[in-house]
Amino acid sequence: MELLSQYGLFLAKIVTVVVAIAVIAVLIVNLTQRKRQRGELRVTNLSEQYKEMQESMSASLLDEHQQKQWHKAQKKKHKQEAKTAKAQAKLGEKADSGKPRVWVLDFKGSMDAHEVNSLREEITAVLSVAKPQDQVVLRLESPGGVVHGYGLAASQLQRIRDRQIPLTVTVDKVAASGGYMMACVADKIVSAPFAIIGSIGVVAQVPNFNRFLKSKDIDIELHTAGQYKRTLTLLGENTEEGRQKFREDLNETHLLFKDFVKRMRPSLDIDQVATGEHWYGSQALHNGLIDVVSTSDEWLLGLMEGREVLNVRFLQRKKLMDRFTGSAADSADRLLQRWWQRGQQPLS
């Protein structure tokens, strides 16, 4: 018995030491991360990527002897370019192609639109160097979400228009509800033929467990200061007055949504399209919701002639704990989006 007691005490000491080491490691990691920058800005030259792909495909069509000659010429060319760049760097000259630039941003929105944190950094970075002859293309994918989140995202895009820099939004899959709120800020909206567009409406639902709790003889007390501090609740008994106020708030939000879209696209028959319905790209063109039917790939390829196309991404650094909790939240969010899309769309 004494042996078991000593063994248990020994295990307790080991566990204590391991936990202490783990806590110290977490503290060190957090302190290290605080010292780092909040994120990293990455710029990718899409024009160069396309050019390299094109050259690689052209080389693959040559015979073996021609391929050897081509690779030799490419090696010589790259060596000369590196030599020129080095000479310019020594003289303090900036390497500038002189071509107008197309700044490409990506926004794949979730229900809470937390991606706006990266979007605001990307837009700030682009506006710090963009010239009047440049333009911005946003590749957008979102079924919408919370009003305040997507309202902020739309306001971030408005910063580009306020600087008189042409803004194009391309949609390959979906820009509905809050997603369309963002898209309509653009000077031009480009949509793939079968992309989902529109859904200018507002929806909210609240489950209520009051009857279930009553059946279990559980009372819920809710105290508020202010007549409409709570309209509908999860656990308390909802009133018809509260329901009416909740519907009024929804209608008011819908009216703000409609006014915003109408202000961004004055030629749009807002009463015809603000019914909460959605359309495919070709139908959306007929209704005036978009301007061009095309994929984002085709649109960007068309812009590469005489322009330099650059993709800008801001990658946020996540804390150690956020990496675990964030991945679970993202999975749940993607599941909700899939349910929404399946519930709204027929399967083919």
Question: How does this structure look, described?
Answer:
This protein has 348 residues and is α/β, with parallel strands linked by helices. Among the domains are: 166 residues, 2-enoyl-CoA Hydratase, Chain A, domain 1; 59 residues, no CATH class. The chain has 12 helices and 9 strands. Strand 2, helix 4 and strand 3 form a beta-alpha-beta unit. Helix 4 packs parallel to helix 5.
Major sheet details: 9 strands, mixed
Helix percentage? 40-55%
Which residues sit in consecutive blocks of at least 5 with pLDDT less than 50? Answer: 344-348
End-to-end span in angstroms? Answer: 70 Å
Question: What class would the helix/strand composition place it in?
Answer: alpha/beta
Name the helix and strand elements from N-terminus to C-terminus, one letter apiece. HEHHEHEHEHEEHHHEHEHEH
Family: Belongs to the peptidase S49 family.
Domain Peptidase S49 N-terminal proteobacteria: 2-157
Main location: membrane
Domain Peptidase S49: 161-309
